[in-house]
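Bit of a strange request maybe. I'm writing a small parser for structure token strings and I need a real example to test against, not something I typed by hand. Could someone generate the tokens for this chain?
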Amino acid sequence: MKKMHKTQREILSIIKEYGSEPWTIRDLQERLNISSPSLIFHHLQMLTRKGYIRRDPECHTSYQLLSEVNDSIIYLDTYGMAKCGPDGHILSGEPVDKIPISRKLLTFNVQDAFMMTAEGDSMEPRIYEGDYVIVMKSNTADSGQMIVCNYNGKTLIKIFKKINDMITLNSLNIEYYPIMVKPSDELYIEGIVKGIVSYSVK
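Reply from user aminoacidic:
Good idea to test on real output. This should exercise your parser:
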């Protein structure tokens, strides 16, 4: 907790002690003797982004403490492969879960991180169905990087290859042919795969 702002620690302490009671931003402001409600809102946002609390979208005075505060553990939004958000992108939809992982597994900013639950066998032997894939948000990728993308409405994990103007999406499983991306196709890169957490039985 050394890296956490003092006000954030105090807010967490209140939520932990009075978790069953509704706390408005004004209530927290008066309890902590903070001059501006926007400061309370900022700290609540930071606690949510760091994975310490979850705010109920239907009741903004209700908070869920996701875990005992521990700077070594973070909770990442986790998305399924089957469904995208309303505008066709993965991250515009609702996460299906929050998964705790060690902060040491991230080599980039936690605010740019999310996870995917892998489906299918196209990326075997490196990724198996049921594995969790750690992804860094990015709309671009270098040739040879493993990406999560939306291709013609389907969410895929593939190796991105680009030679001149030709783009292919490649599998690791030799039974799958590369996908040749045509100019008329819709390809949106959601992020770059940075790690794999394997919980599946091989």
